[in-house]
Structures are given as structure tokens and as C-alpha cells.
Amino acid sequence: MPGEPKFEPQIEQSPKEDKYSLEAVREDISHKADKIRKWGESVGLIEGKDFKVIESIRDTEEDDKTIAPHELREFGVIVGERYYFDFKKYIEGQYTEERKRENPDNKYGGPNLDYSWGGRFAVINDGVFIDTAAASDVEKLSIPTHHEEFLKFFEEKAGFEFPTSETLNPLLKEISDQGLEIYKSALEKLRTLQEQDALPCDGYGLIDAMEHLIMILNDAKDGEALVDLPEVIEGDMPAKTRHYADLTYNAESLKDLDRVTEITGIAFSDDIRVDKIYDKHGFNRKEMENICHDFSDYLDAKKDAGG
């Protein structure tokens, strides 16, 4: 989705199951897109002007090396700022009720909302996730990030400064210099287990996660790995900015490397663990989701107050 860091789908990824095939994913996206278009029509919104549904399944072979594995399945909805929180209420209400009736055996209990930068949310735990963003101009794909506002909000909530690329890039360079080969060895072991049909179900997601982290650490080795969010995104978000969002706003989604060790037997010392970069602040990265949720509510209240 333009201007969008991706969330990893909340599904067990196994190439053996037809429900995760390209055809099944396309069908899932088409069904959900139809619901959203009907909602827009029912409230008098014009597609392309007031909201935009982006249906796109990328073929791995067509992607360049800046696309992380969890970004390959893409489905997004961009909604004008003035309608965005009405859209959120639709997702939390009618949409969720309909999806639960359609999929009563969903073991994840979804759909649920997952929050990120700019008050954005993704719809997860319901098959293919839906990325969303609020745009100041839908036609031009201009998306405010509220990044500077969030920096202050985060510090008040967490008690320390939100990590910037300036602070993270040197740390990632050290991790890359000391641990890149260990990450690569773990990925190779996971792939070997996959070929031997000995990989646990959650191992498929770990393969994607390790490929993503290696992509970031390769960039860190050669130069800057991350670039901060600008105040407004126009069109596509650059890869290094997406990676910045993945390690900061979406920190709670980072895979626990202890599980990689359990499966592969390859250990990661604390000083090379990307999933532990917040530990020095005594901050549980799982709390990032709650802070982003609170920021979304803050922006909603500000909008209602005319701010």
C-alpha cells in the first residue's frame, strides 16, 4: 500500500494449505474489498476521491530486494481524514459482526485492530490483513504521519525519547558487524528444516521475519538502515522508512529470537538481538501497540474537538 509499513498477516503460513494459495488470497481480498466499497457507497462517499481500495497481490519474482517478505501480500484502504474515524467505527461494528458470522470458527477471535503511526490501524486476525491510512488528499495519496506530535506523546507515556534513525542506525551497524552471519545461519537452518518437512507451523513466519531483519542488517552494514518518517508521505513510502516504522511503531510485532533459537539451536547473545533494543530503557516493546492505540484515540478526540 502506498506510504505504508506492512504488518505481518496473523495467520499460520504454510504453503501446503490451499486457503493460503494465491487464488484463495485474491478471493479473500475481493470479498472484503466489496464490503468496504458497499460501506463507502452507503454513506455517500466517492471511490477515488473520498476513499480508495487498493487490491494488489505482488508476485515474489517481480519484486526488488527492498520488499520484505511480509509486504508481498498487499491489501489497503486509504480514507479521507474527515471520514477515517467513521470508517474505523464501521470496521469495529458492522464489518466485524459480519465477518464473525461468516467465519465463526476463526481461532484467533478476529477481526481485531492493530495500531501504528499516524493513528492508523490494520484489520488483523481475519485472514489477509487490511492496511489502512488516513489521507489529507486521497487522489494524490498524501498521508500525514503526525510523527512529531507522536514523539511528544510517546515520551509522556513511556518516559524516554522515541527512537530515531539517528540513534538506531549506529546500534544496527554494531549488531550487523557482530551478528549478521548468525542471523544468516539461523535463516539457513530454518529453510533446511522447511525442506525436510520438519519446521513447526510458526516457523514459516520466522523465516519471513529473519529475511526481513537480514535485509535491514545488510543495509546497516553498508550505510544507513533506517530513515525517519516525514510529516507527510506522498505516494509510496521508501523501504528504509518502512523499516524504521517496523522497528519503532510496530516494535511489538518483532519476532522473539528465543523461538528461533528453540527451533534451530542457534543462540543470539543479547548484544546482537534486534528484538531487545528497548530493554535498556526497561520498556516492554509489547506496550508500543497500546501507546499507538492511545494516540489514535487522542487524534480522534482532537478531531471531534475541532483540532
Residue stretches low in confidence (pLDDT < 50, at least 5 long) are: 1-16, 59-63
Largest sheet: 5 strands, mixed
Q: What is the distance, rounded to the nearest whole angstrom, between the alpha carbons of the first and last residues? A: 28 Å
Helix content: 40-55%
Residue-averaged pLDDT, rounded?
Answer: 89
Radius of gyration from the CA trace? 19 Å
Q: Reading side by side through the largest sheet, how are the strands ordered?
A: 1-2-5-4-3
**Number of H/I helices:** 8
Overview of this protein structure:
The structure is a single chain. With 307 residues, this protein is an alpha+beta fold. The chain folds into 2 domains: 18-156; 165-289. It has helices at 22-42, 81-102, 147-158, 165-195, 203-222, 239-247, 257-264, 287-304; strands at 51-57, 73-80, 112-115, 121-124, 130-135, 142-144, 232-234. The strands form 2 sheets. The protein has a 5-stranded mixed β-sheet with strand order 1-2-5-4-3. A hairpin with a 5-residue loop joins strand 3 (112-115) and strand 4. The protein starts with 21 loop residues before the first helix and ends with a helix. Mean pLDDT is 89; it is low at 1-16 and 59-63.
Topology:
Blueprint: H1 22-42, E1 51-57, E2 73-80, H2 81-102, E3 112-115, E4 121-124, E5 130-135, E6 142-144, H3 147-158, H4 165-195, H5 203-222, E7 232-234, H6 239-247, H7 257-264, H8 287-304
Parallel strand pairs: 2-5
Antiparallel strand pairs: 1-2, 3-4, 4-5, 6-7
Helix pairs in contact: 4-5
